[in-house]
Structure formats: structure tokens, C-alpha cells
């Protein structure tokens, strides 16, 4: 409700636009993911698939069993040559395609003249024809060849020649599929799958003879192993392996293709198809395409934690690939769904060479955005999506019938939050009546053109939602003659076929607050035609004035961090003396304002500095509420920022050093009877564990002052030379001032000190630093505490260090982003630290040094050098012994190794 009492009906969510309103078939909702149905989106003209117009309609030959490839764990791609007589490898490092096996035989040396030998060299045996290959999860390259009598197994960890695995009567293979358990499935020409276990030996069906004495199986008995052979049906033309011992099957039904998922038990899920119908509905021409019968690839996400996958199918012409996103029954209402993605994926010089897909989470650094590759132009090429947006050219949407509950209501204006790119347009029509039946008989009336609102959204202090597009703007128009209890709107959109307008929200305001009725005399309403014009004319001013009245009436929104617009957060922070860093996002700024009292109360303290450094280091998408609510818990946060107070790094005194409880005589005995504190520094270090500094400072000041010695007690009679010495040297003796301040804090009154020391000093400011061991036990204890605890802690005092951890995902470090975040921490610490302190910023791996890191406080050895829990897993491996304090030398433990090592029981020719 605005300041004048007007209200509005609205369309905001997906349910509003698609259920309450009535869009025609030319509209679609973005995002179209069912899992994000509640997210902020837009109603757009239906996106279309860009259809590649091939130069010829002739279909390519279907790929043979030699086509396709498989990646190993290091990104090397193995494939067969066109004739199937060699294995080729595309190296991830160099990007070159070379022969992997068999290697060319060296040419024989020419025979010596006169030596015995064959008249003609023996003809080499014909090469084996290799028919299919795959790389297992155990990092074996398995090749099927009937000419070789079975399988050839290459150990990609150990290297060496292949290990033959005989397979009598092996069926003619079409493809080899790597299974999750380390085994292999062979898909033959008879449309059947044959299973090989993790030992890569053919499975033999177990025949159990009937027996009357066999006990009944227990209820908790292990399930029987999967069968050795699974018939997929005569229409199965291509297969891909899925997790959970399931298989994706492409079925050929004449000129139609279908997808289905089956498991080893033969239980098939629902069948999805025909796939050509989805492609026909998503293209502008509506022509039924032809898909390849033998080409099928599964595209896995680059994020290892992401779920789901996509299916790649190829056009029969070989010019374009199609991506279908798969949704498992758990997320799709109990059935498998394969939805066409409107992505343009062209292929260049493809010659039926097949596809190769990366494993989940695997990324090639040379092609970081590619997830699948195809063979063409004698090399493997990445399968990339090119931006070719296409959409419907027009669409009509009829809004719901809105009831104002007021007969003869004058509907005021319409505000439409929309995106209107160049080449597109949005127009509005309306009709109104006092009865629903009369509304259906009313013709549609064209309303004025929708124009951008001069002040942005007409709602007071409203800003676009965080997930809204930046191009969304508020378009408004004044309804001309919409009078009646019921109102219905019609939105018409048009585009150039490339960029679609987007409808985010629509608001219809009612009733109109009439300046003519409230502020002008009756004479201005005498003529109906002129009064109607006057009312609409004054409504233009009413709309702008009401917007300002609404902002004044809703001024309390500016004082709440949750509702204040983004541009007012700096102003609100000024009231609370909160300073924002330039890199801090709006969400983090709002959280800081909500907890401003606690943040300001801890500013300059250890929890406050740790909180400021954590907020500057962690990205804005991380929830900061727990840290702001309880910053005292930040030191216990795993993989978090650490704050080291460097005075805690001062080494303790040796166990054999002298202590005041041992008495002055014991110290004199260690010093050889010399009570001077200016004696040999090595002897003082051995006896005390430190070298006194205050005595050397005092002795250096005696020489220019021409004073023979400093007194142990107040001189009597009064010595003018000593008075002049104190006045002249006091500004140059910082340790003497600290000594006097220490005594003043300890004894409070000079009379108490004189009673304990047996002296007669007139004031604390007259006590110099002693040049020899004090005679009394109380004075000796005071001197020892000052030198051993205060002076030794001066070097690291008022200094601290902020230790930054590396992000968890060190495989994708962005060093520029790390530098920006470190600079943000430096600014935050410099802003909040006390002025007399000195701070430094270091990364955690820089401090893992003996003598610099405190185990249990600043570092955690069990989490590894980079605070990575993965490194701790090495301690459980019997190959690498764990690093145990007190049991192993510092150079005898290992925190990581350069490459994954195979298990000890691995079968290979090298071990």
C-alpha cells in the first residue's frame, strides 16, 4: 500500500506466471531446472536450438568398434588407429598424438661381408587387429583382440609389454566399458554385455546342482553376484557405463532413437524417446533430424561433488552434437528423464572417429572447459559449446482476472519488471468490467508504450533481488480507461529471434488516487471528456509525488541493515563508526551492521583482530553469522585464520639456569666470584641463561658523563654529580626507565621498596640500573624478574602475526585472487590493530619451521603442511611411515609424494 492507500495485484513467482496466468506455447521459464523452480527467474520466449545447416544431406558412415577413446588418470587419451593395428596416445602434456603400442622395430644391421646368414630376412608376422579398448579405474589399459586370443592388459603404472589374458571363444566386441569396481564389460555384436571382474578375467557362470540337503539361505546373506552375461535386446546399438552397476543403452527403433537405463539384473527403467521429437520441437524449422545409431557418450561434470550427468548424441551428418541432461528417478519423480539442452555444439572435420569423455572431476589444463573430445583432422579436438542463442519471435500471455472488490474501480497503473534487450519489444493490453461475464465480452484495449520508470522501482527503497539480472528495469504505463471491479491484462512480446525479453514481475495498482476529486473544485468535473483528460494528466504528477511520499513514509527501512538499499549501507555504517573495505560484498556488509555493537566492542583485541582478518580472507559467499556472533570460537576453527602473539615465541630459560630461590652465593659460585654484570657474556649466558642488557646500557652512559660508578643507595651527603647524571642521561636510557616503572608498579610506594631492600632512595626515578649483583635477596629477585621476563620479552612484544591458510581446493588456485584477499587482510589488520603494535601477514606453509611454529597452537601436524586432511591419509599407508614426534627424524618423514603409487598386490610385469 502506498501513501495514498493504493494497493496492487502482482505476478512474481514461477507459479504466478505459469499457473495463474495463461502463457501460450511460445513461452518458457528460466531457469528451467526443476531443482531451481523456486529460484528467481524470468518468463522468456521459448529458447530454440541452433540448427547447423549442413552442406550436404549425406549421412556419415557409422563409427566402427575402432572408434572412440579413453582417458587415464593423468589425462592421456588412448585410442586405436583407423585400421585397428596400433594403439595411439594423445599426451596431456605435449598435446601430440604418437604410437603407444606396438613400437616400431629397429632396422637390422647389415651383415658382415663373408659372414653366414639367411639369404633374405624373414617376413614379419602380420600385426594383430585390435578391436576395442578402455582404461579401468585400477589404471589398466585393456584391449580386446580376437586375433590375439583375448585381452591385452597394459599396466599404466608399471609400464612394460602387455600381459595377455586368454579368452576362448571371445565374442566379437563393439566396445569395452570400464566398471566402477575395477572390472570391464564387453559389449558384443549380438547386443549382449559380458562381465569381467576386477581381476580382468572372464566371468564363468557357476552351475549349482540341485540338492535336497542344501540349507536355506540366511535372511542376511550377501546378495548373489551379478550375472556374467546380460542380453540387451536386438535394438541396442550403443552402451555407456554408469555408477551403481547400471548402463545407459541407446536403442534404435528404425528412424527413432530411445534411451534407457538397465542394471545387471536386466531390470530396465523407463524408456525415454523418441529423442528426435525433442530436437524437432526445439528447432525453428521443425524438421525431424537424423541421429547416429552408434555414437553415445556420457559427459560428467568437472566438479567431483556435483551430481548428474549429460548424454551426448551425434547428428548423422557429423556436423553437430546434441546434449541431453539426465535426471535420476530420485530427482525426477520416480522416472528417468533426458531433457534436450539448447546448446549449439558444432563438430569440425569429424570423420566417424568417436568420442572420449573425462572422468568426474577430471580437468585438462590445456582445455579447462571441455568435458568430451572427438577425433577429427588426425587429432583429438575438444567438444565445445558455442553461443548461438535462438528463441521464438513472438508470444502472448493472458494474465489472471484480478478483483478489486470495488465496483467501478479506476485501475491506476501497471509496473512491469522486465528485461528488454535491443531488437525486442513488450506491449500491454487491458480490459475491465464489473462482472466476470462482462469482462469476457469486453474487447482488448491497447495501452500506452511501456517506459522506464525514472526512479527505478516504484516501491519505496526497493532494490533488485540478489539473484535478479542487472538488465531488469521497471517499465510503467498509466492505464487509460480501465474502469470496473475486474481487470485482466495481456502482455505481447516480440523479438528478433536471437534475444528474448524477460518478464520478472508485474504489479497492477488500484484504485487511482484522484487529484481531481480531492483537490480541485467541482467545476473541473462538469464535462466528462475534459475531466477524464484532466484526471489522467494529474495522475502523471501524482505518480511521481506519491513515490517521494512513500520514501518519506518508509524512512525507517533505511535504519535496518536487512532492508536498507545497497547504496545506503555506507551512510548507515557512518552512524555506527563501521568502516567497510572496498572488496566487501553487500551481504557481508549487512551482517557487519547487524553485529556492529559486538564488533566495535572487540576492536583492537585479539578476537577482534582475528574476526577482521577472517572476514577479509574468507569469500563473501561464506556465511559470516557464526563468526560475528561468537568470535571467541575462531581460534578453534579448522583450516581457519590464525593469530600469533610473538611474545609467546620467546624460548624459555634453560632448565639448569640459576633461579632466585638458589640464593646469591650459588650465582656467585657460577660466576667465579665476580659479581659484576659486565663480566664475560659467555659466562653470564651459561649461568643465567641470558645476558643482562640494562647494565651494559648504564655502563655506556657513564663514560661521556665522567661518572666513576652508579651508587647502590641514595648518596649521603647529596651528590650533585649524580643528580646531573640522572637529568642528562634519563632521556637516553629506555631500559632504566622501564626498570624504574617496573619497580613503581611492583612496590607502589618508595618506602615499601626501601624497607625490603634496606636502602634509602628518595624516589623511584633516582634508582639506576645496577652494574653488579644486588646485595639483598629482594633486590636480587626484582632484578632477575626484570631482566629474565621483561627485557627478554621486549623484542617480540607488541608484535603479532596473522597466518592465512590456503583454500581447500589447492588444485585450482587463483594466485591473483589470493593476492587480492591477502591485500584485504592487510588493510583490515592495519585499520583495526592498536597503533603501538606491529603486524605481519604470512601464509601457513611459510611457518612450518622448527623454532617458529608452536605445535598445537599455530600448526597442526596431523593435518599436513597445508592444513589438508588428504595428507594425513598417508600415515595409514604402509608404504610411507607416519611422521611421529620423538620417534622419527625430521628428514625421515614424508608429507606427500609426487604421484599416486599402486597398491602392493597390483598385478604387473614389472613386479
TrEMBL record:
<dbReference type="InterPro" id="IPR006521">
    <property type="entry name" value="Tail_protein_I"/>
</dbReference>
<feature type="region of interest" description="Disordered">
    <location>
        <begin position="891"/>
        <end position="911"/>
    </location>
</feature>
<dbReference type="Pfam" id="PF09684">
    <property type="entry name" value="Tail_P2_I"/>
</dbReference>
<dbReference type="InterPro" id="IPR011748">
    <property type="entry name" value="Unchr_phage_tail-like"/>
</dbReference>
<feature type="compositionally biased region" description="Basic and acidic residues">
    <location>
        <begin position="902"/>
        <end position="911"/>
    </location>
</feature>
<protein>
    <submittedName>
        <fullName>Phage tail protein</fullName>
    </submittedName>
</protein>
Amino acid at each position: 500500500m502506498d501513501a495514498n492507500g493504493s494497493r496492487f495485484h502482482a505476478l512474481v513467482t514461477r507459479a504466478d506466471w505459469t499457473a495463474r496466468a495463461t502463457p501460450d506455447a511460445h513461452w518458457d521459464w528460466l531457469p528451467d531446472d526443476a531443482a531451481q523452480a523456486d529460484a528467481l527467474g524470468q518468463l522468456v520466449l521459448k529458447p530454440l536450438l541452433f540448427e547447423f545447416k549442413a552442406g550436404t544431406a549425406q549421412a556419415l558412415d557409422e563409427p566402427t568398434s575402432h572408434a572412440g577413446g579413453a582417458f587415464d588418470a593423468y589425462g592421456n587419451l588412448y585410442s586405436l588407429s583407423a585400421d585397428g593395428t596400433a594403439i595411439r596416445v594423445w599426451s596431456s602434456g605435449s598435446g601430440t598424438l604418437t604410437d603407444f603400442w606396438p613400437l616400431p622395430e629397429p632396422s637390422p644391421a647389415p651383415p658382415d661381408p663373408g659372414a653366414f646368414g639367411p639369404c633374405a630376412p624373414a617376413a614379419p608376422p602380420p600385426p594383430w587387429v585390435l578391436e576395442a579398448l578402455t582404461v579401468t579405474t585400477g589404471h589398466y589399459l585393456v584391449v580386446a583382440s580376437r586375433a590375439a586370443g583375448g585381452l591385452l592388459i597394459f599396466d599404466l603404472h608399471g609400464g612394460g609389454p602387455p600381459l595377455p589374458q586368454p579368452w576362448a571363444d571371445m565374442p566379437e566386441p563393439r566396445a569395452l566399458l570400464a566398471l566402477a569396481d575395477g572390472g570391464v564389460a564387453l559389449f558384443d555384436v549380438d547386443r549382449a554385455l559380458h562381465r569381467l571382474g576386477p581381476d580382468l578375467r572372464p566371468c564363468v557362470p557357476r552351475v549349482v546342482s540341485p540338492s535336497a540337503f542344501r540349507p536355506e539361505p540366511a535372511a542376511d546373506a550377501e546378495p548373489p553376484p551379478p550375472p556374467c552375461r546380460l542380453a540387451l535386446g536386438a535394438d541396442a546399438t550403443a552402451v555407456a557405463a554408469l555408477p551403481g552397476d547400471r548402463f545407459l543403452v541407446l536403442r534404435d527403433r528404425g528412424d527413432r532413437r530411445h534411451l534407457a537405463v538397465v542394471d545387471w539384473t536386466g531390470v530396465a527403467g523407463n524408456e525415454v524417446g523418441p529423442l528426435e521429437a525433442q530436437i524437432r520441437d526445439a528447432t525453428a524449422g521443425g524438421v525431424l533430424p537424423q541421429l547416429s545409431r552408434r555414437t553415445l557418450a556420457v559427459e560428467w561434470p568437472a566438479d567431483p561433488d556435483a551430481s548428474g550427468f549429460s548424454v551426448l548424441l551425434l547428428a548423422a551428418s557429423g556436423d553437430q552434437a546434441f546434449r541431453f541432461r539426465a535426471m535420476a528417478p530420485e530427482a525426477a519423480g520416480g522416472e528417468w528423464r533426458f531433457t534436450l539442452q539448447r546448446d549449439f555444439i558444432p563438430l569440425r572435420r569429424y570423420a566417424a572417429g568417436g568420442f572420449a569423455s573425462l572422468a568426474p572431476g577430471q580437468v585438462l589444463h590445456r582445455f579447462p572447459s571441455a568435458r568430451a573430445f572427438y577425433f577429427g583432422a588426425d587429432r583429438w579436438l575438444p567438444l565445445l559449446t558455442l553461443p548461438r542463442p535462438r528463441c521464438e519471435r513472438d508470444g502472448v500471455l493472458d494474465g489472471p482476472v484480478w478483483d478489486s472488490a470495488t465496483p467501478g474501480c479506476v485501475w491506476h497503473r501497471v509496473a512491469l519488471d522486465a528485461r528488454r534487450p535491443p531488437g525486442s519489444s513488450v506491449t500491454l493490453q487491458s480490459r475491465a468490467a464489473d462482472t466476470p461475464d462482462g469482462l469476457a465480452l469486453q474487447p482488448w484495449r491497447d495501452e500506452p508504450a511501456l517506459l522506464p520508470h525514472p526512479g527505478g522501482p516504484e516501491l519505496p527503497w526497493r532494490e533488485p533481488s540478489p539473484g535478479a539480472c542487472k538488465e531488469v528495469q521497471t517499465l510503467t504505463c498509466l492505464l487509460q480507461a480501465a474502469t470496473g471491479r475486474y481487470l485482466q491484462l495481456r502482455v505481447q512480446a516480440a523479438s528478433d529471434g536471437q534475444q528474448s525479453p524477460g518478464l520478472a514481475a508485474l504489479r497492477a495498482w488500484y484504485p487511482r488516487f484522484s487529484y481531481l476529486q480531492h483537490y480541485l473544485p467541482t467545476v473541473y468535473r462538469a464535462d466528462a471528456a475534459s475531466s477524464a483528460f484532466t484526471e489522467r494528466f494529474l495522475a502523471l504528477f501524482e505518480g511521481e509525488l506519491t513515490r517521494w511520499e512513500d520514501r518519506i513514509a518508509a524512512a525507517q527501512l533505511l535504519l535496518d541493515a536487512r532492508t536498507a538499499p545497497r547504496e545506503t549501507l555506507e551512510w548507515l555504517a557512518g552512524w555506527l563508526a563501521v568502516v567497510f573495505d572496498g572488496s566487501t560484498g553487500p551481504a557481508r556488509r549487512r551482517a557487519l551492521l547487524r553485529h556492529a555493537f559486538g564488533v566495535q566492542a572487540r576492536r583492537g583485541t585479539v578476537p577482534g583482530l582475528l574476526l577482521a582478518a577472517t572476514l577479509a580472507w574468507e569469500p563473501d559467499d561464506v556465511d559470516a553469522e557464526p563468526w560475528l556472533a561468537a568470535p571467541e570460537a575462531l581460534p578453534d576453527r579448522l583450516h581457519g585464520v590464525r593469530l600469533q602473539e610473538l611474545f609467546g615465541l620467546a624460548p624459555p630459560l634453560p632448565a639448569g639456569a640459576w633461579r632466585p630461590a638458589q640464593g646469591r652465593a650459588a650465582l656467585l659460585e657460577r660466576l667465579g666470584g665476580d659479581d659484576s654484570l659486565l663480566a664475560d657474556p659467555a659466562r653470564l649466558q651459561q649461568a643465567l641463561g641470558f645476558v643482562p642488557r640494562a647494565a651494559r646500557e648504564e655502563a655506556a652512559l657513564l663514560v661521556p658523563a665522567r661518572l666513576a660508578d652508579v651508587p647502590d643507595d641514595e648518596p649521603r651527603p647529596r651528590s650533585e654529580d649524580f643528580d646531573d647524571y640522572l637529568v642528562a642521561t634519563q632521556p637516553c636510557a629506555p631500559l632504566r626507565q622501564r626498570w624504574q616503572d617496573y619497580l613503581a608498579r611492583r612496590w607502589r610506594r618508595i618506602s615499601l621498596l626501601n624497607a625490603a631492600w634496606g636502602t634509602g632512595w628518595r624516589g623511584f626515578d633516582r634508582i639506576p640500573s645496577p652494574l653488579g649483583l644486588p646485595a639483598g635477596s629482594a633486590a636480587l629477585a626484582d632484578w632477575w624478574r626484570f631482566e629474565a621476563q621483561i627485557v627478554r620479552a621486549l623484542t617480540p612484544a607488541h608484535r603479532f602475526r596473522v597466518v592465512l591458510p590456503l583454500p581447500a581446493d589447492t588444485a585450482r588456485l587463483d594466485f591473483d585472487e589470493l593476492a587480492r584477499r591477502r591485500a584485504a587482510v592487510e588493510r583490515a589488520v592495519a585499520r583495526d590493530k592498536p597503533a603501538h603494535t606491529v603486524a605481519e601477514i604470512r601464509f601457513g606453509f611459510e611457518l612450518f619451521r622448527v623454532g617458529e611454529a608452536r605445535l598445537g597452537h599455530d600448526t597442526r601436524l596431523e593435518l599436513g603442511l597445508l592444513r589438508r586432511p588428504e595428507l594425513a591419509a598417508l600415515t595409514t599407508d604402509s608404504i610411507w611411515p607416519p611422521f611421529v614426534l620423538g620417534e622419527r627424524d625430521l628428514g625421515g618423514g614424508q608429507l606427500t609424494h609426487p604421484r599416486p603409487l599402486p597398491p602392493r598386490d597390483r598385478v604387473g610385469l614389472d613386479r
